[in-house]
Write a structure and sequence with these properties.
heterodimer, A: about 280 residues, mainly alpha, 11 helices, globular, B: about 270 residues, 3 domains
Chain lengths: ~280, ~270
Amino acid sequence: MSEASQSLAWSFSRAFAIASNTFREAVRMKLFLAMTTLAICSLASSFFFREFNFGSSELKFITDFGFGGMSVFGSALAVIVSAQLFYGEIEHRTAMTLLAKPIHRSEFVLGKFMGAWSTVLCFLAMLTLCLIAALWWRETSLMAEYPDSFQSGRIVQYGSLLGFAFAQALRIGILCSVVILFSTYASSSLFAMVMGVLIWIVGQLQHIATEAWGAVDSWILKGIYAFVSYALPNLHLFDVGEGAALGENLSLVLYAKLAAYALLYGTFYLAIASASFNRREL
Amino acid sequence: MGHSTWRSQALASIDVSSNRRIIPFALLGALILGAVLAPLDRSIRLELGQGSEVESLRRLDSQFGQGLSVAILGGYRSVAANLVWLAKNENWEQRDFGGTLAKIALATSIDPRPEMFWLNGSRIIANDMPAWEVGDPNTDILFQSPEGRAIVQDFGKRALAFLEGSRPYHARNSDILLEEGMIYWRKLEDLEAASQRILEATRGENPPYHAFRLYGEILTRMGRKEEALRFLESHYLTLPDNSYDAMKVVVADRIRALREELESKAN
């Protein structure tokens, strides 16, 4: 850290400037376009796979494909984009040019996080719009075909689709902050990506470690499960799509709790990332 | 030594590996944060009704490899459940009791919301499995001999136990309540329990028109004809004229027949 930046007051506007540059860079990436196209194709494929749908209603099946696309492709995009955008700057030495200016490293960390996160938010927004359009179109066709099944009006809870997208945005926010934390330690972007994917999988399974913790006798296993239960965020909490699409309206309090959970974890990881990056020699 | 000089020297002493020194503090912080947020975690899980997935994931891994587990964890839950249901058809064609039951249970544990899994699953257990048990040439004994009826009753009870699992997700689902009523009626020959379930079905969510006609019929079979007449008369008043499913003419004929029967008995 330069002497100039030590005496400089911390500024959100500099972080926003870095974020907007990062966002512009990210949306021009071929990967972003490829992921978005893949996710939309996955949603569209639900119309072709309708004949393989045996149990659930057709609308729920389409919704499930849309939710799966948001969750899987969104998480993959979060991991790759965060690692590429953060570590890429260190790898290509462009970070040195930027950090030579009067700027705090924590502003750089926050800016990169906001840039990466807003890129994935953009992806989520596009997929949500496509999902709403697909469901609206199909529901309208079904209403004309089977009016008796829709006597009380439309059955898809479109507000809940937005709720699911919001929950995914929070989950992906945690994931972006974790990948940025690992990028501050990493000596290659691959390491940051692999760690990000591992945290994604283990975070998704964290509730199983919590269940297993009480069920095993071995103290060593108990210790491992307890560590995983407490040290990692439970990303499964954000899987609110089960009842959200057709029927159940989740309370605003629940969304507020999820937001608080994500905010605390995200802030913690970014604080550690800033502390780590402050001490890193570039 | 001034404060700023001391700070500069301290910062200068930090080397490449110094950011690794904060790892123990980061881990400790993560553990403390996890412990602090544990009540919030529990409260969210409770509100979402997220149950245990250990058993269904373990069975998925052992039967289908880890691909489907990843699909579930990634969010493609109903897709995975449909694939399990599809795989079940092979066991069903081979009349494999264990495989069919295991996959029906697995499909409903992965995605318990589609009522079709519950309805078709219970029909396979209650209707198909007794025939598998005795073999196609001997299906007559299911209706004629006490041993055959015992087999039908045994599978009927298993189907009811299976449908009991749908309760947390479909407590007021008329189709499932009606299915239970029909199993009590046709398989266990317990008209009292059947009538209670069918009555519940008429009071459940979106009850089908035939649930009302069935309740009238079972009351008649139980000898409670005045009650059946009153029930069908009140139901008749709610029926629309232009719906085929409502079968208003059939209900009117049944009311007329019951009135004539009761009047002839009174005379």
